[in-house]
Amino acid sequence: MFGKYSFRGGVHPSHNKDQTASRNIETFPAPERAIIPLSQHIGTPAKIAVKRGDTVKTGQVIGEAGGFVSAPVHASISGKVVSVGPFPHPLGRRVTSVEIENDGTNETVEFNPSDKPWREAAPQEIVQKISAAGIVGMGGASFPTHVKLSPPSNKPIDTVIINGAECEPYLTADHRFMLEKTEQILLGALIIKKVVGAAKLFIGIEENKPDAIEKITEQLNKEIFKEIIPAKLQTKYPQGGEKQLIAAITRRQVPSGGLPMDCGCIVQNVGTACAIWEAVSEGKPLYQRVVTVTGPAIRKPGNFLVRIGTPIKTLVEKCEIDYDAAQKVIMGGPMMGLAQSDLDAPIIKSSSGILAHSTLTAGTRDYDCISCGNCVKACPINLVPSFISKFVQKGLYEDAMAWNVLDCIECGSCAYACPAKINLVHYMKLGKFHAMAIRKSQEQK
Amino acid sequence: MLDILKLSIALTIVAIGSGLVVAFTYYNTGEEIQAQERRNQMEALEAVFPDGVEIKTRSGNNPLPSTYWVAQTDSGLAGYAFKQKSKGYAGDIQVIVGVAPSGEILGLNILSHKETPGLGDRVSEKPSKKYIWNVLAGTSEKTSPWFTEQFKDLSVFEEIKIDKSTEYHTCSDEKKGKLEKTNTITAITGATISTRAVKNCIRKNVPEYLNYLKSSGESS
Amino acid sequence: MNIDFISLVQISIAAVFINNFVLSRFLGLCPFFGVSKKLSSAVGMGMAVIFVMTVASMITWIIFHYLLVPYEVDYLRTIVFILVIASLVQLVEMTLQKFSPVLYDALGIYLPLITTNCAIMGVAVLNAGKNDFTQEPYSFIESLVNGIMSGIGFTLALVLMAGIREKLELANIPRPLQGLPIAFVTAGLMAIAFLGFSGLNFFK
Amino acid sequence: MIKEELKRGIIAENPILVLALGLCPALAVSTSLQNGLGMGCAATFVLICSNIIISLIKKWIPEKVRIPCYIVIIATFVTIVELTLKAYFPELNNQLGIFVPLIVVNCVILGRAEAFASKNNLGRSIIDGFVMGLGFTLALCILAIIREVLGSNKLWGLKVFPGFRPMTIFILAPGGFFTIAFVMAMINYFRQKKEGGQS
Amino acid sequence: MSSEQKLLHISTSPHVKHIETVPSIMLCVCLALIPAFAASVYLFRLKALVLTAVCVISCLATEWSIVRFLLKKPSTLGDFSALLTGILLAFNLPPDLPPWMAAVGSVFAIGVAKWAFGGLGHNFVNPALAGRAFLTASYAAPMTVFNVPDFWKARGWTISGLSEKIIRPVSDTLDGISGATPLPTFSGITEALHAESARLVDLQFHIIDFQEALPRLFFGNVGGCIGETSAAALILGAIFLWYKHIIGIRVPVLYIGTVFLLTWLFNGTGSFFTSEALLVPVYQILAGGLMLGALFMATDMVTSPVTPKGKMIFGVGCGILTFTIRKFGGYPEGVSYSILLMNLTVPLIDRYTRPKIYGKVKKNA
Ligand SMILES: Cc1cc2nc3c(=O)[nH]c(=O)nc-3n(C[C@H](O)[C@H](O)[C@H](O)COP(=O)(O)O)c2cc1C
Ligand SMILES: Cc1cc2nc3c(=O)[nH]c(=O)nc-3n(C[C@H](O)[C@H](O)[C@H](O)COP(=O)(O)O)c2cc1C
Ligand SMILES: Cc1cc2nc3c(=O)[nH]c(=O)nc-3n(C[C@H](O)[C@H](O)[C@H](O)COP(=O)(O)O)c2cc1C
Ligand SMILES: Cc1cc2nc3c(=O)[nH]c(=O)nc-3n(C[C@H](O)[C@H](O)[C@H](O)CO)c2cc1C
Ligand code: SF4
Ligand code: SF4
Ligand code: SF4
Ligand code: SF4
Ligand code: FES
After folding, report:
1. Which of E27, E28, E81 to mutate for ligand 4's pocket (most ligand atoms within 8 Å of CB)?
2. Residue A184 covered by a domain
3. In terms of residue numbers, what domain contains B60?
4. What is the pLDDT of residues D27-70, one digit of tens each?
5. Beta pairing class for D158-159 and D154-155
6. d(Cα A13, Cα A8) in Å, to the nearest integer?
7. Ligand 9 midpoint to CA A205 (Å)
8. How far apart are CA D115 and CA D47, in angstroms?
9. A327-365 confidence digits (pLDDT tens)
10. How far apart are CA A306 and CA C141, in angstroms?
11. Which helix (H) or strand (E) holds A342?
12. What is the reported pLDDT for A438?
């Protein structure tokens, strides 16, 4: 009953998922100290709602949404606010964060679940709940979910896709999630479908997770889940990218420069779906998430349910990182993750994995482009990264724009495939930066 | 209006001046140019006939070419000369060939060609053993084109064979004799097409002309 | 008028490929190196050259065969041709400006460059000479075809060159070679490749 | 002053190698030193003569018909050269082919007429014509020497090195391009070295 | 920072990369050429060995001197592209070429065609072919003399290349025999096809029919450049490269396919389905440098388009030009010039075959 779906382009990095795929999600102890950034999402940062010296309970709001495209932030442990100020952030900048010292009581605020079953609630009420729970996309982009679920009325949504692809190598958090929280995910998916009033609901899973596929298929026999359509995806990076997922499953394309809703689709990560279910049914805010800790320099890899704000260092030291071997610590997967310069940075809502690498990127010598075309073949957006990178190197940003640099999703397939080991993504990002500036100045005129 | 008039006048004066100067030059050089052309023609003809003949221009009709030449000595007819062309490597090769009524080639001269320098253009190469310092030292040398030279004394009535193993100017006298006996020429290395084109110039029509001339009883 | 089709094809092939004006005959090199930095201007220049060459080869042929030759003043060829070409370019420029501003904007800036372009003068002089294939003087049609095709050959070389030079903008050319020298090396390599057409003949 | 002028014409503003003007004859006839020198002299003659005439009559020529007048004057001298070559140097005339009439469009000559002779007095115009012509001729000769020696192992039609096998390509079109590229690159190299040393 | 924590590296994503590198690609191509090299040494003996060695050494030496002395950069010999250029140039030379000429060609290939433009990846024409074309224009006579492999000479094939006997027009044989070109214009082939073998026998030639000739071409028993004679060895290497995803299938197949189709359509026998009409194209794709060119030289990534559609156009273009030059041109062999000519068009092809990007719609802004 599973069809096999795929898209054009992409690459096949080795999965390296075995080390953690069979490990149950363990609850990671609450840290001594949590650093909770007020900006963990795309959009306006949250407004600080506590001050130094306050005592907070787990789940208490410490930052309120700073606007429509924003999300509240909650305390992930109970204790005293020791400071509010700039702290390291996994995205590299210093960001205003709340530092909480654990008092060890884990006193939790009382959640207020919906007063009526979700099927009877109005969409706005549900979105309200989701917004209050501070849910943002957990697939990586951390876009506030309540915004995504409130499309303008002129953009009807007919398809919801739950993203269980997890195409990044090494990561298994979503995989474990699908095995251990199957029902919650599916229920969350139904909520999403109801909220946006879609006709179709897909759940896409890469075929290298047969147990997850099986588990979900089992559930689908239940009457309430009958309407969910499973989609077996070809194992290929970046199958989980929403544009690729939409193309693979619906054969539609998100228009260049547009959003999924422009082609009637919404994509949500499995973790997000589960968080939605918890927010709606229990009223539980988003203050913890599942993180895969793995990599060649980690002696005890695993999947952990971690409080937001736990410093990366605490996490990796608990998993026995081999500091001598570790060359790079990456938040996220190896294809799109960010190399960390400071391990004091905390886990945030979108941290799906921590990867400690023991080797630097293969091929240390940069050659000039030999026009092999591997990057062109690999690019899921059909760009010509070799040319764009050359334009960017020579400062020809207009040419880069004409060759659609702004459509790049920064997936890294091109750089992965490049035999000359050119850091194409770097040039794409740089090109996008300058192209945005050019576009802005053009618009001003 | 006045402006235009002024412009035209200036232009006209310049043009007239220029016309006068050119016309003057032309009348001073025109004769020389024509003389040059005649000289070229004569030189080309003389090169294909033995010394001391008297050359006359004839106009012929089919199958003869419209113009051909006859050479006469005191003792009678020495031979004919025909202009011929044939497709070489990169264009036509034009030759003038002198033949005795018996079909024996008296001389061959390449008039024009478009062959590749270093290859086909060696049809008119003059082998020289002279280096620049020989000249500086004042030694001199008489050269003649080796490729056309080897056609001398061959017969146009027989197939002219092509030997690709050597080049004529490097051959010993003995070998040269042998080549002549077998009605054979040596090819220019790497330029068989040009070699063959020159051969074709001679073999294509000339035997027919001779036969025609013979049958029409021309022998004055 | 009887038209020798084979001769026309031969003229065309020779003008575009075998004796390409730029890569083999060395005509029109100044605009070739001057206007080949950008593809868009190369196309514009090419079109302008094709146009002017076509018109110029017609007019100069007529003047040569109906004026200069009959009155035996063919030694005035050079003076007359250059004047005709210069005024022709002026005329074309003015006409375009008046009747087709769009075309004028596209070709206008190239037109003055063309006056002193030896490719135009070259084709006029060649047409006054003898046809390589028949060893006869060019007929009107032949010289017309020679003009168009030489222009096309020029444009072909120019456009190829412009494409390559745009690509070379992205390369790391050693410093002494930057600018004109590398353009000459490029032209040299193009000329080597065009040697492949030498001896091309569809009627052997 | 003459020395500076010479330096300007031959080195600083060499028409072919620096200004990249008059490339067509430069490449087309530089297959042998004889041709190169012949073309150089012919062009220099036209250059000097037209400079003389133009600087003499510049006052009487209205601004608007300036260019046509120059062209006619240049074309006149070109025709004189053409006829003279035909009459007395037929061999050379054949070798130079259509590039003799094409002297008329040689960018160097019209350029000098326009930029120099039309603004300067007779004496300076003659000198300018002379040094520019010299620069043109010298550049042609340099190219021609390289090409003739490499391409046919000859100089002035005489063999040069025993045992050297010439590379025909140098007297074909590609070799012309490579030779001028090489000469220009050398000039750039030494100039850049000098500038690098100074700064 | 804690004492056991040293500085961590940061870099942009991705943090893993495919193991294939530029040197590994070049080495693979060198490996893939081993069968052809073995065949050439077997057929031409010492000559092939010497020519290849001279080309490789002079290519490497040129590259090294330019990079170290003129550009003053670290040596680039480690990317193996100069090695490859050397091998391929040697494969494109006739066996009897004096080795010093091969060295001249190598200097040109590396010095002018490659490094004038900035080295690996920046050249726009195939260096090996540019070197060969340079030699052809410089030393045309030695570059167009192809003798039969020593291997066959030793077995009594003393006169000239096999191919000459098959395809030289009969009338030509009257001219005498020497330096055979493996592939004079193929209008000659059909003439030879129709010539009764009896006539050939008269002229002291062995009788050779096509059925016998094709396998010989396939295994390399013909006169030709040292690396191009054995189609089998070349195909073997190409399959390896294709398996390693180093060369695509499009360029070679379209190239060879186009030549096959055109020579079949214009086979000159006046019919299409006789065995003779079908043998002409088979002969054409096996003879001359087509296999070497289509499998190893038109596939050079640096000098061919990057876009998939562009590669197809490139392949077809090479095919058409090869056919045209072989049938109508002045050279016996069209492959190297067609690839060089198509190299010139690569920037334009790339520009006009940009893939349609994901989600491209009409701009309604
Ligand atoms: C500025 C911005 C505005 C967005 N607005 C919407 C929106 O209105 N509706 C929606 O469904 N998604 C919206 N998104 C989310 C994107 O569709 C997408 O889900 C998000 O960028 C994460 O995608 P990724 O993880 O594939 O990169 C927006 C994203 C950004 C950056
Ligand atoms: C290259 C690329 C790969 C991605 N891979 C995944 C993935 O494997 N799983 C996933 O859930 N989201 C992945 N995403 C994010 C999705 O595009 C999309 O943002 C997400 O599924 C939206 O759901 P969310 O808003 O709930 O996070 C990827 C994004 C990109 C650009
Ligand atoms: C650049 C080049 C120019 C050539 N020019 C000529 C030429 O002018 N005349 C000629 O007969 N062959 C010329 N050829 C050679 C022919 O293509 C052909 O190979 C040759 O005629 C075969 O002659 P062979 O039997 O002596 O080897 C040229 C070849 C090349 C590569
Ligand atoms: C499949 C393949 C084919 C190649 N073919 C050639 C070739 O024909 N000639 C050559 O000089 N280099 C060739 N190279 C090597 C390399 O790409 C070449 O040296 C560059 O063009 C130099 O910048 C090839 C490389 C690969 C991977
Ligand atoms: S990073 Fe950008 S250019 Fe590279 S493959 Fe992904 S989308 Fe294409
Ligand atoms: S993969 Fe790398 S080497 Fe190949 S074309 Fe792209 S940028 Fe160039
Ligand atoms: S983004 Fe950084 S590394 Fe890249 S070019 Fe700019 S400064 Fe250099
Ligand atoms: S625009 Fe691109 S390069 Fe600039 S900061 Fe953002 S990701 Fe980095
Ligand atoms: S000299 Fe020919 S265009 Fe300038």
Report:
1. E81
2. yes
3. 49-215
4. 988 999 989 999 999 999 999 999 999 888 888 888 777 888 88
5. antiparallel
6. 16
7. 67
8. 13
9. 889 999 999 999 998 899 999 999 999 999 887 654 456
10. 86
11. none
12. 94
Out of D105, D172, D173, closest to residue C118 by CB: D105
**Measured in angstroms, how far is the CA atom of residue B47 from the centroid of ligand 6?**
66
Residue B33 located in a structural domain: no
What atom in ligand 7 is closest to the CA of residue A430? 1
Cβ neighbourhood burial of A69 (10 Å; 0-12, 13-18, 19+): middle
Are A276 and A385 in the same domain?
A: no
Same domain, A253 and A383: no
Write down the pLDDT at residue E194. Answer: 31
What separation in Å is there between the alpha carbon of C172 and the centre of ligand 6?
16
Q: D21-40: b or e for each residue (b if 16 or more CB lie within 10 Å)?
A: bbbbbbbbbbbbbbbbbbbb
- Of A196-210, A292-306, C71-85, the least confident: C71-85
Contact between residue C138 and residue C127 where contact means Cβ atoms under 8 Å apart: yes
- pLDDT score of E42: 85
Task: Give, as one character, the DSSP assignment of residue E333.
Answer: -
One domain, residues A273 and A419: no
Residue B70, domain member (yes or no): yes
Centroid of ligand 5 to alpha carbon of A371 (angstroms) = 16
The neighbour count for residue C185, using CB atoms within 10 Å, is: 25
Indicate the range of C24-33, D103-112, E4-13, E155-164 predicted with least confidence.
E155-164
Residues of D in contact with E137 (CB under 8 A): 168-169, 172, 174
A408: pLDDT strictly greater than 50:
yes
The position carrying tokens 């170290």 is E68
| Contact at CB, D159 and B118, closer than 8 angstroms | no
Q: How far is B48 from chain E (nearest CA, A)?
A: 25
The total number of structural domains that make up chain A: 2
Q: Which ligand is nearest to the CA of A350?
A: 2
Given B18, B91, B116, which is nearest C79 (Cβ)?
A: B18
The residue to mutate among D29, D98, D107, having the most atoms of ligand 9 within 8 angstroms of its beta carbon, is: D107
What pLDDT does E215 receive?
65
Indicate which atom in ligand 5 lies nearest the CA of residue A424.
4
Ligand 2 contacts (CB < 6 A) are: A 137-141, 143, 163, 165-168, 238, 240-242, 267-269, 272, 336, 409, 411
Mean pLDDT of chain B: 83
Count of the separate structural domains present in chain B = 1
Residues in chain E: 365
Low-confidence ranges of chain E (pLDDT < 50): 1-4, 156-209, 362-365
Segments forming the whole domain that contains residue A159: 4-20+118-282
What phi and psi values does residue E262 have, to the nearest 5 degrees?
-65, -40
The ligand with the least distance to the CA atom of A259 is 1
Please check whether residue A399 touches C, CB under 8 A: no
Chain A residues close to C168, C-beta within 8 Å: none
pLDDT at E182: 35
User: Would you say residue B2 lies in a domain?
Assistant: no
